[in-house]
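Hi everyone, sorry if this is the wrong subforum. Our group has a chain we'd like a structural model of before ordering constructs, and none of us has done structure prediction before. Sequence below.
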Amino acid sequence: MEITDLLREDVVTVYLDDSVLDVAAVLREEGVGSAVVLDAHDEVLGIVTDRDLVVYGQEFVDSLEQTTVNQVLSMTVFSVAPDVSVRELTERMREAGVRRVPVMENGDLLGIVTLDDIVVHLAGQLDSRELANLAAVIEGESPPREDPA
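Answer:
Right subforum, don't worry. Here is the predicted structure as C-alpha cells:
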C-alpha cells in the first residue's frame, strides 16, 4: 500500500510569522495537534505541534502575543514523496523520531500522514482487538476526513 491511500489532503497550515496564540487558536479550532508551517511564498518550513507551543513557548510566557512560530519551530523539515510505502514510511519515522510527516512532490505539499493514520490503517488490516480499540480512540479524537467526492 502506498501512503497516498492514508494521507490527509486537508492539511492545517500556519505561517512563520503567526503568533503562537494564533496558532494555538487554529489547532483548537481544527481539532488537531499540529500544523504545517509555511513561509510567505507558501513553501513548507516545518511542523509546529501543540507540544512545541507548550514546551518551547514557556520561554516566552510573558510575551505570547508577540511570540511567533519562528521562535518555537524546529527548522528541520522531514517529508516524504508520495510513492513511499507504508513500511518505508514507518521505518523513516522511527529513525527520525517523528509522528507527523508532510507528503511532498516537487516542493508542493500534497498532504500529511500521521502516526494515528497508520495505526488506524493497521487496525483495519490486522485481526487485533487491541489495535481496533486504539483505532476507535484515535478516530473519535481526530477531525473527520474530507469526502473525496
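For your construct planning: The chain has a mean pLDDT of 84. The first strand starts at residue 13 and ends at 15.
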